[in-house]
Write a structure and sequence with these properties.
The complex is a heterodimer. Chain A is α/β, with parallel strands linked by helices. Chain A has a single domain, classed as 3-Layer(aba) Sandwich (Rossmann fold), CATH 3.40.50. Chain A has 7 helices and 5 strands; from the N terminus they run E-H-E-H-E-H-H-H-E-H-E-H. In chain B, the strands form 3 sheets. A 5-stranded antiparallel β-sheet of chain B has the order 2-1-5-4-3. In chain B, strands 7-9-10-12-11 form a 5-stranded mixed β-sheet, with helices on one face. In chain B, helix 5 runs parallel beside helix 9 and helix 11 packs parallel to helix 12. By secondary structure, chain B is of the alpha+beta class. Chain B folds into 3 domains: 6-121, PAS domain (Beta-Lactamase, 2-Layer Sandwich); 184-297, Substrate Binding Domain Of Dnak, Chain:A, Domain 2; 320-497, Heat Shock Protein 90 (2-Layer Sandwich). Chain B is elongated, with a radius of gyration of 39 Å. Chain B has helices spanning 6-9, 37-43, 62-77, 123-170, 184-207, 211-217, 220-234, 236-239, 246-262, 271-314, 329-346, 365-381, 420-424, 449-459; strands at residues 22-27, 32-35, 85-91, 94-106, 112-121, 325-328, 349-355, 360-363, 394-403, 406-415, 463-470, 488-497. Chain B contains 14 helices and 12 strands. The chains are: A alpha/beta, B alpha+beta. At the A-B interface, helix 1 and strand 2 of A face helix 7 and helix 9 of B.
Chain lengths: 165, 503
């Protein structure tokens, strides 16, 4: 898998085409990024298994998509995106092996590839992200600039640069 | 030496130990004369032997004891006894609630000399009752607060909608006759036209002067950006992977071009080409803005209804229950259609009521209007546009019929599916549940519409039925990933008893 010149980004977000569509404009216009959108947990896994990304922007509250495993987790947790926190489950799958998803996570993915972008901002979530080693976090609020995705990507890339020393 | 009054001495040898409830006797000042094992266990007293304890020391509030004695004396003077009461005691620092049945003991002159009674530990049930009562009060307070907040938000939404209407009115010339959201195909055609006009204008600007003058007008970086923007405008459908983002992205682009235009140093480029870039960028930005504002307006109308319906729901129990009366189903449906008219219009959806008959039911008008409006609102909200060519508008249909003395009020729409298991498992009726496929395209919802409709129907001796199946015969394989991507016909029917004596 050869990296192109453009920064490859995966945005895992079920509202990307709708409520948050204003945020994608600067990404597309700049021409510096190749961005894929995954609108549920199943699609996120498929993208992660098929491509290498420089940055993954991850929402916490996601629908499951069509994969039986994610549907089951979603159902077991009360069929509510907020309670199911499938974004966190995806991070668990990628980094600590706690998720019981029966596929190996992609070998290339590291904590420094991920930035969490979510409406949640509670101590429990921060504790879990700390435990997972994910350091880039952005609270999703109404007052954000439309360039926020580029800001998050920059922070992820800085994180990688400092981690790689 | 015992201080027990002589009259009570005779009781001290009584063996109450085997009785299954707490039995006790105290002097007037509260000293225990007798307490059986249950009372001793409750108060953590020695289980055997004489007692050296006073019930007063167990009162959580000693003043309660004084009040109890005063009340006992008053009742004794009237020849009555103390009835059942709940005592709050403290044992080893913990609350002990006992249900106390107590009689006064009097001497020959009628003077109160003590009490005999029995007590049952009700701490657990009392605490849970008290907790339940506290929760009930809290819920009531919250409902009041939520009602008030929702009311305030509804008022804000009225302001937002009126402002949006005024903004839309100010768009001249108007590309659309009404304020409905244009069809995606229509938007794309217009965007492509505006994008090409802008790309042409930028290209003309770039050819309008030699390199030296161009660099006096703008920096090399700005020219490079403009060059890139021309390609983007020509290929925007390939560059933006999601059509929903076309207007927002092109608006941003046009705005950027406007900023570059504002930086042009005058006198270096042909004036008419500069103006043409400004005009075409403005046209594209204006059109994209209009589309976004129209979509926002439709979302605000929907939010307004959602908040209104939530407010109705949380305050239902607060309202006085009015007796059922004869109601004409046709009038109810007409009123619901009136309430939903603006919302339906904003989405270009017709409400077809051709098969609604004059049928009568007994019911609560307000509750039924709320429940039926919710069902109609859902039918509109979850509709897809059937006709990409826009030769006719999309529609939802409402029809009524009578079967076995039951009035069926059926709402049918064409669009978002409801999964079979969601219907079979009754998930769609659960409070707060929103259909798995219902949340696409930013549809708002609270998950109370169907729950409330069923409650209202049941309160009227009726029920609600839901069915959803593919609109076409083509794809019937439920395991196919595409199965739920096709349009479904969904029918939600409220079934209510026909009023006695009605036709």
């Amino acid at each position: 898998m050869v990296k192109t010149e453009k920064t490859k980004v995966l945005w895992v977000e079920d509202s990307a085409r709708l409520e948050l569509r204003n945020l994608t404009g600067p990404i597309y216009i700049s021409g510096d990024y190749h961005m894929n959108l995954a609108e549920d947990a199943t699609s996120a896994v498929r993208y992660l298994q098929s491509q290498v990304y420089d940055a993954i922007i991850l929402d916490m509250r996601l629908p499951p998509g069509i994969d039986d495993y994610w549907i089951r987790v979603y159902q077991d947790r009360g069929e509510d995106k907020a309670d199911a926190r499938l974004g966190l489950e995806l991070a668990n799958w990628m980094f600590n092996g706690r998720a019981k998803f029966p596929f190996t996570p992609p070998a290339w993915v590291r904590q420094y590839h991920v930035g969490v972008f979510t409406v949640e901002n509670d101590a429990d979530l921060h504790a879990r992200l700390d435990e997972l080693g994910i350091r880039v976090f952005q609270h999703k609020t109404a007052g954000l600039a439309d360039t926020i995705l580029i800001d998050i990507i920059m922070r992820i890339l800085q994180e990688q640069a400092s981690d790689r020393g | 030496m015992s201080n027990t009054p002589p009259l009570l001495e005779q009781f001290t040898n009584f063996d109450f130990r085997e009785l299954p409830i707490g039995v006790y006797m105290t002097s007037l000042d509260g000293r225990f004369i007798v307490a059986n094992r249950i009372v001793r266990e409750m108060l953590k007293l020695p289980l055997e032997g004489r007692l050296d304890a006073n019930i007063l020391q167990y009162y959580a509030n000693p003043a309660d004891r004084d009040a109890a004695i005063a009340e006992a004396k008053r009742l004794a003077a009237e020849g009555k006894h103390v009835d059942r009461g709940i005592l709050r005691l403290k044992v080893a620092g913990k609350d002990l609630f006992v249900e106390d049945y107590c009689k006064i003991l009097q001497d020959a002159e009628g003077q109160v000399i003590g009490f005999v009674g029995c007590m049952v530990d009700i701490t657990q049930s009392y605490e849970s009752r008290r907790h339940e009562q506290e929760l009930r009060e809290r819920v009531d307070e919250l409902r009041f607060d939520i009602g008030r907040i929702l009311h305030a938000n509804t008022t804000t939404l009225v302001m937002v909608k009126q402002t949006l209407d005024a903004v839309i009115e100010a768009f001249e010339p108007k590309p659309y006759r009404d304020m409905s959201v244009p069809h995606a195909q229509e938007v794309e055609t217009a965007l492509t036209e505006y994008a090409n006009l802008l790309a042409n204008a930028i290209e003309r600007l770039m050819r309008s002067a030699d390199e030296q003058r161009r660099l006096q007008a703008l920096t090399a970086a700005d020219w490079k950006k403009l060059q890139g923007y021309v390609s983007f405008l020509r290929e925007y459908k390939e560059r933006i992977p999601t059509p929903e983002s076309f207007p927002a992205t092109l608006r941003k682009l046009a705005n950027d071009i406007g900023r570059i235009h504002a930086a042009i140093v005058p006198g270096n480029l042909a004036r008419e080409t500069v103006r043409e870039v400004q005009n075409t960028a403005w046209q594209l930005e204006r059109f994209a803005n209009l589309v976004e504002v129209l979509e926002t307006r439709a979302a605000v109308i929907q939010m307004d209804y959602t908040i209104h319906s939530l407010r109705e729901f949380v305050t239902t129990d607060k309202r006085e229950q009015i007796p059922f009366r004869h109601l004409n189903v046709k009038s109810l449906i007409d009123e619901c259609a009136k309430r939903m008219a603006e919302y339906a219009r904003s989405l270009k959806i017709d409400i077809d009521r051709r098969d609604v008959g004059e049928l009568f039911i007994m019911g609560n008008e307000r509750d039924l209007l709320r429940a039926l409006s919710n069902l109609l609102h859902n039918a509109i909200k979850y509709s897809w546009r059937r006709d990409p060519e826009r030769t006719k508008p999309a529609w939802v249909s409402v029809r009524t019929f009578v079967r076995e003395k039951q009035v069926h009020i059926e709402f049918e729409n064409w669009g978002v599916p409801i999964k079979r298991e969601e219907i079979e498992r009754g998930k769609v009726f659960e409070l707060g549940y929103r259909g798995e496929l219902s949340k696409d395209r930013g549809r708002l919802g609270t998950g109370i519409g169907l729950t409330d409709a069923r409650r209202v129907a049941e309160a009227h001796g009726g029920r609600v039925e839901v069915e959803s199946h593919p609109a076409f015969r083509g794809l019937q394989d439920e395991k196919s990933a595409q199965y739920y991507s096709q349009p479904f016909l969904t029918k939600v029917t409220m079934i209510l008893p026909l009023a006695d004596g009605a036709k």
